[in-house]
Amino acid sequence: MSPKLFAYLLMAVCPIFFASNIIVGAAAVRSIEPFTLTFLRWGLASLLVLPFAWSSLYANRKRLLAEWKLILITAFMGMGFSGSGVYFALKHTSATNGTLIYSACPIIIILLEWIFRGRKISLREAMGIILGFAGVLLIVCKGHLETLLTIRFSSGDLLFVAAATTWGIYTVLSKKALFQSLSTIGMFTVVGLVGAAIQIPFVIWENIVYDTLPTQMEQWLSVGGLVFSASIGALLAYQYMIRVLGPSTAGLALYLMPPFGIFMAVMFLGEDFRLFHLVGFVLVMGGVIMATFPLSLLRRQRSTAAVAQD
Question: Mind listing the pLDDT tens digit for each residue in 41-100?
C-alpha cells in the first residue's frame, strides 16, 4: 500500500479516534471519577510514547526547565481543565451535545487569536463564527430559546463550552516557539506528563472520598480505549496525514468528527437524536466550514484538474 493511499484510509478512521474521547469517556465516567480518568489517560499515554520523545526532550532540556511556567499553564489548559472538564461535563449532559459543542473549537481558536494576537477576521470567517455560535446556543438551550430568559442551562453543556474554550487557549499556546522547537511526540509527552501530574492531588481526594480507582477489566478497557484511540491513535494518525497529505487536506478529517461522534453516541450509548440536534449540527458545521475551510485547497485542486484536462 502506498503512503498516500494509507493516509487517505487513516482519514476515514481518524475522526473515530477523536470522537472516541467523548464516547468512551461517557461510558467510563459512570464508574471512574473525572480526575482519576484524566490522570490515567494522559499519564499512561505519555509514558508509552516517552521512549520515542526522549531525544527531543533531552536536546531541549534547558529551554524546558527555563520555561516551566508556560508548560504548566499549557498543560493546565489542555490536559487539566479541558481534560477533566470534558469528563465532568459527561456526568451532566449527553455525548451528542458534547460532540456538537466541542466541534466549535476551530471557531473559538479564531476568536482567541483575534483577541490576543490581533489576527484579522474576514467577512467569511465572521459569518461562520455567528453561524457556529448560533448552533452551540441552540444545543445548550435544547431547542428552546426561552431558556435564555430563564437562565436554566445544563451545567454539563456549559462545562463543555468552558472545556472547548480552554482547549482553544491550549491550541493557541501550543504555537509558542518553545513547543515548535520540539517534535510532535516531544510536545505531546511533556505536556501530557505535566497535565497528568496536575491531577494527582485531586486523584488522591477522589479515591479517599469515592474509592473509584479502576479494579475491573471493563474499566481498564475504557481507560485503554482513551489511551490508545483518543490519545496516541488520534495523534499519530493526524500527524501521519499532515506529513503525507499536507495540513490543509489532513485538517478536513476533523470536519467528520461530529457525524461520527453522534452516530457512535446513538449506536453505543443509546442516546436520542432530536430535531434541535440536527439544526444545531447544521449551524455549527456550516459555521466551522465557512470560517476554516481551506479555500486554497479547492483552488489547487481546480488548477490540477485544469492542467490534467489540457
Answer: 999 999 999 999 999 999 999 999 999 999 999 999 988 888 899 999 999 888 888 887
pTM of the model: 0.80
CA-derived radius of gyration, the chain: 20
DSSP 32: S
115 lies in which domain range?
3-309
Q: 97, 155 in Cβ contact below 8 A? A: no
Q: Total domain count for the chain?
A: 1
Amino acid at 193: L
| Helix, strand, coil in percent for the chain, rounding step 5 | 85, 0, 15
Q: How far is CA 28 from CA 45, 95, 213, 301, 307, in A?
A: 17, 12, 12, 42, 52
Cell of 41: 489517560
Q: How far is CA 86 from CA 29, 33, 139, 170, in A?
A: 10, 12, 16, 14
